[in-house]
Amino acid sequence: MENNESGKTEALSPQEETAKAAILAECDKFAKAGITFVAAHSDGYGDSGTTEQVKCYGSEGYAWGYHEPVDHDVSYLQDHFDTLVPFGYENDCGGFGDVVLDVAARKVAVERNDCFEDYTTTTYEV
């Protein structure tokens, strides 16, 4: 699999800049509450998809499905996280990914995984 760390090359839109700033503005509050990561997971295929509710984690790292979220209401940030979900992840074979705030680093990362169909051909004479 390809790991493209260069990511998005174009500048953030004004809406994305606003969303990022709103998310980062909450870092002090999250740190005081013992929250280390805040994340929203998206998944979809066949031209339909969904973004899950934003959840908080107190773990040393973030990996979707591996850590239990902590009880902390961050529903007020849902629209901001949704704004940062990459457009079109749900098209064709689909995709999945996460928008993750690393509270200590004060960084927001977007991970997008595109799914695709593959095949192999074998030809032989009988």
What does it look like?
This protein is 19% helix and 25% strand. It is of the alpha+beta class and 126 residues long. Strands 1, 2, 3, 4 and 5 form a 5-stranded antiparallel beta sheet that branches. The protein is elongated and about 70 Å long. The model has no long low-confidence stretch (mean pLDDT 85).
Using brief descriptors, characterize the structure shown.
126 residues; alpha+beta; 5-stranded antiparallel sheet; 3 helices; 5 strands; elongated
Distance between the termini: 35 Å
Overall 3D shape: elongated
Q: Provide the succession of SSEs.
A: HHEEEHEE
- Could you name the ranges where pLDDT drops below 50 across 5 or more consecutive residues? none
Helix/strand-derived class? alpha+beta
Helical stretch count? Answer: 3
How big a fraction of the residues is strand? 25-35%
- Approximate helicity band: 10-25%
The count of strands amounts to: 5
The structural domain count equals 1
Computed Rg: 17 Å
- What does the average pLDDT come to? 85
Largest sheet: 5 strands, antiparallel
Please describe the topology of this protein.
Layout: H1 14-24, H2 27-32, E1 37-45, E2 48-51, E3 55-57, H3 78-84, E4 95-102, E5 107-114
Antiparallel strand pairs: 1-2, 1-3, 1-4, 4-5
